[in-house]
Amino acid sequence: MLTLRELAEAVPLVNAHDEIVLGLPAASVLTQRFRLPTVDPAEFSEMMRIQLEKALPFSLDEVTTDFEVVEQSESESVIAAAAVRNDQLSEIAAPLLERGLIPRQVTVYASQRASTYAPNGNALLIYREGESLVSAVAENGKVSLTRTLDGGDAEQLRVELPQFAVSVQIQGIMGPFPNVLLDESCYQLRDTVEDLVGQRPELVGIEMPPAPVKLNLVPASWKQRRAQLVRHNEWRKRLVWAGGLYGGLFALGVVYLIGLRAMIGYLNSAVGRDAAQTQFVRTAEANWKALAPAIDSRYYPVEILLHLFESLPSADVRITTYDQSARQISVEGEANSPALAYQFVEKIKKNGPLQVYNFTMGAPRILPNNHAQFRIEGRPR
């Protein structure tokens, strides 16, 4: 177990994501026990503040307060209240605040020990806080009265403890205590305590971790600051996740581009290796296309003329000129009307053997005798 003597030594061991619980020394906290009428629990806070205002030597605006219900009946409630001055609390927590570390809970260390070792019934707890000796009264795990003794040797304890017992009786806490708890670090005071209280105290060690308590003395300004830090941390986490996602996508993009360039390089190499074969195929294709009119019967002039004459819609359409080269066919003729010329070109387009060509015809020229002179051109597809 790691033991630290000062709060500043613990600061490097925590970070903003830790749930910090700060236990205050008894000397920095005013504890008070009240008996109040049993009312709506929502009204306890205001009634407790009125009572504390009478007991405190300074304004309630300068302190942070909280309370716990010790016991309750139909007519009366016993309240254990605690108050700490805000400036003193800020001074104690300065090592944390300077690092932007806001405790989730500020409580009293005596309450943590009482909740751990005396959760039920009344108990007297004696332990050391630094160089001081603390006597605390616990009722059902709640600290209702404390006294701090500087130095805390046996002789001082013999004087102070009986006076503290009188204060306990004045507060209406019944004694003797069924449980007397003495911290093991105060073992040399065991006989003195036994002489004063009339029973052998039980030795207790440092609890790890202490039992949780309800008492919370976090000032309102700290709560606001902590809420801001929580939101800030949430946004920072989101930005980190977004940055990580963006970085991942960017890395994937880089990998994809590298892979794409490698693929392009591979394809270029393959094209280079196959260039000779590709050129041979292209040359062969060009040669076959050049030879097609000579070796393919579909391109024979006699065959084409035969199919052209098959496509004539009637004897009123006459072919006057036919010209053929390797690149195109030219047919000129005369029809008794433009409609017959258009019928002729449409039948040519639908003639199966002639579909190796793409035929087009411009607007026929009307002759003085109202006949239509046309020109049809066909190019290999």
Total of domains: 2
How many extended strands?
15
Q: What count of helical segments does DSSP give?
A: 11
The proportion of residues in beta strands is 25-35%
CATH superfamily of the largest domain: ATPase, nucleotide binding domain
Could you say which overall geometry the principal axes of the C-alpha atoms support?
Answer: rod-shaped
CATH class of the largest domain: Alpha Beta
What is the H-and-E element order? HEEHEEHHEHEEEHEHEHHHEEHEEE
CATH architecture of the largest domain: 2-Layer Sandwich
Q: Describe the strand arrangement of the main beta sheet, using strand numbers.
A: 8-7-6-9-10
Low-confidence segments: none
| CATH-defined topology of the largest domain | Nucleotidyltransferase, domain 5
Note the gap between the termini. Answer: 93 Å
Which structural class fits the helix and strand makeup? Answer: alpha+beta
Task: Summarize the entry for a quick read.
With 381 residues, the chain is an alpha+beta fold. The protein has helices at 7-10, 41-55, 86-92, 94-98, 109-117, 154-170, 190-197, 220-273, 275-295, 301-310, 338-350; strands at residues 21-24, 30-37, 63-72, 76-85, 105-108, 122-129, 132-139, 142-150, 179-183, 202-204, 317-324, 329-335, 357-361, 365-366, 372-380.
Overview of the molecule:
Helix content is 43%, strand content 26%. The chain has 381 residues and is α+β, with helices and mostly antiparallel strands. The chain has 2 domains: 7-218, ATPase, nucleotide binding domain (Nucleotidyltransferase, domain 5), CATH 3.30.420; 295-380, General secretion pathway protein M, EpsM (Gyrase A, domain 2), CATH 3.30.1360. It has a 5-stranded mixed sheet. Strands 11, 12, 13, 14 and 15 form a 5-stranded antiparallel sheet that branches. Strands 2-4-3 form a 3-stranded antiparallel sheet. The longest helix is centred in the middle third of the chain and has 54 residues, at 220-273. The mean pLDDT is 85.
